[in-house]
Amino acid sequence: MYVKYNINPINKKTGDCAIRAIAVATGLGWDEAYKGLSEAGFIIKSAMDDVESIQYFLVDVLGWKEGKIRITKGSKRPTVESFSREHPNIYAVLSVANHITCCGKGNYVDTWDCGDCSVYKYWYTEIN
Question: Helix, strand or coil for residue 110?
């Protein structure tokens, strides 16, 4: 199920999707997610919203796991909506074409409904 939510402190809706997704999925909040991604990008010498920086911050700093999308021949990638529904026991940050979003407890959270977007990569942690 789609949950419309904007954690950005000034209600900005573009340009900070990686920060928003990580802030919501991890519970860190927008400021701490910004600082973490910024530091990650600085350490690995990459832009803070590049997949490499997101990977470093979530996996190497926070201890999340990297998920794999396995596609069998003739099948399609999962959408944000289907992925969220099929993984109710994780919090995840999802990489889709030109966007980063998040899901947890069977819901996906963003400023716009990206449920039809295909998931290419994801990082996750189990829900306790």
Answer: strand
Dihedral (Cα; 101, 70, 123, 20), 10-degree rounding: -10
Who contacts 4 (Cβ-Cβ below 8 Å, separation ≥6)?
109, 110, 111, 112, 113
Instruction: State pTM to two decimals.
Output: 0.94
Taken in order 38, 87, 114, 5, the sign of the CA dihedral is negative
H, E, C per residue of 61-95? HCCCEEECCCCCCCCCCCEHHHHHHHCCCEEEEEE
SS3 assignment, position 49:
coil
Residue range 20-44, pLDDT digits in tens:
999 999 999 999 999 999 999 999 9
Cβ partners under 8 Å of residue 112, min gap 6: 4, 13
pLDDT higher at 72 or 8: 8
Give the whole-angstrom CA distance, residue 9 versus residue 79.
28
Residue 102 · residue 109 · CB < 8 Å: yes
Q: How far apart are CA 46 and CA 48, in angstroms?
A: 6
What does the block give as tokens for 26? 């991890």
